Amino acid sequence: MPLDKHELLRQLADRLQQSDRLAHRAEADAREAARNLATESEKKEDGRAALEFGSLATGQAARARRVQEELQALAKFGQGELPRFPRQGPVALGAIVDMSTEDEDGFAERTFFVLPVGAGTELTGPGGDGFLSVITPASPVGRALMGRKAGDVVEVTLAGEVREWTVLEVA
Questions:
Q1: In 3-state terms, what secondary structure has residue 78?
Q2: How confident is the model at residue 37 (pLDDT cuts 50, 70, 90)?
Q3: Which of 77, 114, 136, 149 is a Cys-bridge partner for 89, taking CB atoms 3.0 to 4.6 Å apart?
Q4: How far apart are CA 165 and CA 144, in angstroms?
């Protein structure tokens, strides 16, 4: 059964919205903690803790802004018809790519969805069957895959280890 790319984009948008809610909640909690510490005591340690909570709140606000930017980019990308790819190829933004590798643990297959945002997010296939990993063209795997076709072998260095992957199919 072919994968519904719009459904996969909805899954990713849901995950990003959840991340946005968590970032806003963490920001509010950190700001509240900073206010409470600053008013409860004038000790130097409490003052430092208040500054740290303030910095944490600022970081969470920045995280929420990045997530909002990702949501906007995803919405723009998902408007209208998503690109269709012939089985043989070339990988580009919007492609679902099946790949295989062989290592000391044996033969392994992975499926990647190449999108402008959401790197590292795991999505589930129809009915919860199978997993897809979102990658972006800026990631090591994404850079190695762009423009490749079924049958091509790519080398990717992850955590200092070089791995060879074979492109099985592009959809």
A1: coil
A2: low
A3: 149
A4: 10
**17's torsion region: left (phi>0), alpha (psi -120 to 50) or beta?**
alpha
The C-alpha atoms of residue 133 and residue 163 are separated, in whole angstroms, by: 17
Max Cα distance, the chain (Å): 68
- What is the reported pTM? 0.79
Q: Is 22 helix (H, G, I), strand (E, B) or coil?
A: helix
Query: Considering only the top CATH level, what class is 95-170?
Result: alpha beta
Ramachandran area for residue 80 (φ above 0: left; ψ -120 to 50: alpha; else beta): left
- Structural contact between residues 114 and 97, judged by C-beta atoms closer than 8 angstroms: yes
Phi, psi of 122 (to 5 degrees): -95, 130
DSSP one-letter code for 159: T
Q: What is the pLDDT of residues 97-145, one digit of tens each?
A: 999 988 777 888 999 999 999 999 999 987 777 899 999 999 999 999 9
Classify 18 as helix, strand or coil: helix
